[in-house]
Amino acid sequence: MGSPVTDPDFIDWEGPQHEVTLNPFYLGKYTVTQEEYLEITGSNPGYPAEEGFPVNTVNWFEAVEFCNAMSRRDRLKPAYTVNDTEVVWNEGNNGYRLPTEAEWEYACRAGTTTRYSTGDQITGEQARFRSDSQAPSGSFPPNPWGLYDMHGNLYEWCWDWYGLYSAEPQQNPRGPESGTQRIIRGGSAASMERHLRSAVRSRVEPNIRNVNLGFRIARNIK
Q1: Phi, psi torsion values for 135, nearest 5 degrees
Q2: Beta strand 170-171 pairing with 155-161
Q3: What percentage of the chain has pLDDT greater than the value 70?
Q4: pLDDT (tens digit, 9 = 90+) per residue, 132-171?
Q5: Distance CA 114, CA 105 (A)
Q6: Strands 25-27 and 218-220
Q7: Across 104-131, average pLDDT
Q8: Confidence class of residue 222 from pLDDT cuts 50, 70 and 90?
Q9: Which residues contact residue 50 at a Cβ distance below 8 angstroms, ignoring those fewer than 6 apart?
């Protein structure tokens, strides 16, 4: 996990590279779409509102509430206990949740060690970037594990608070216990290529809504 110092676009908080071991997990094939969000919550904040597009302008708390609502619909135990702005992850529950940062990077890399899952370069035929508009979900080829839009189109919320990496091997890292900014990953339609790299880390306050920010869901494998 992380970026090597030899990467020409390396930034300090992308390292040091370190070994991570993860429990098995499921991850959504696509980012959550506007239709899915409308079905679960009764509203569609996506802008512009277009069929087949990923939902955006959803803050971290709203993504958490979506996960819980979808869990209740599917008769699963919600992953989160929410009390205003305090969110506790009930890790033993089987409901839907946001991926951790480590899970997200593992899934994005899909077994690769290059800058992108596509190699050390990425093109406009492989992802949406340097653009004024997003693309419908699944418009570009999936990564080697069948996951779509891990590079570009929308930044994606992760569970973790932002913090610096440790060089020590990690088992199911969850990020710091507290913080002021949550991790987002993947780059967006408006990003430059270097911001789409598998190891790139970004962070924003959890109450932020942005047209370039969405999410996908994860779930424990029991």
Answers
A1: -115, 155
A2: unpaired
A3: 100
A4: 999 999 999 999 999 999 999 999 999 999 999 999 999 9
A5: 12
A6: antiparallel
A7: 98
A8: confident
A9: 34, 136
| Alpha carbons 38 and 113: distance in angstroms, whole number | 37
For 170, the 3-state DSSP assignment is strand
Domains of the chain: 1-222 (3.90.1580.10)
Report cis status (omega within 30 of 0) of the bond before 16: yes
Model confidence pTM above 0.85: yes
Q: Residue 116 has what pLDDT?
A: 98
Burial class of 83 by CB neighbour count within 10 A (0 to 12, 13 to 18, 19+): exposed
How far is CA 50 from each of CA 135, 137, 149, rounded to the nearest angstrom? 10, 11, 17
- Compute the C-alpha angle 115/117/122, nearest 5°: 70
Beta bridge partners of 88: 81
Q: Which residues pair with 54 in a beta bridge?
A: 33
For the chain, what is the total number of helices (H) and then of strands (E)?
A: 3, 10
> What does the alpha-carbon distance between residue 195 and residue 27 come to, in Å, rounded to a whole number?
22
Buried b (16+ CB within 10 A) or exposed e, 9-32: ebeeebbebeebeeeebebbebbb
What is the average pLDDT value for the chain, to the nearest integer?
97
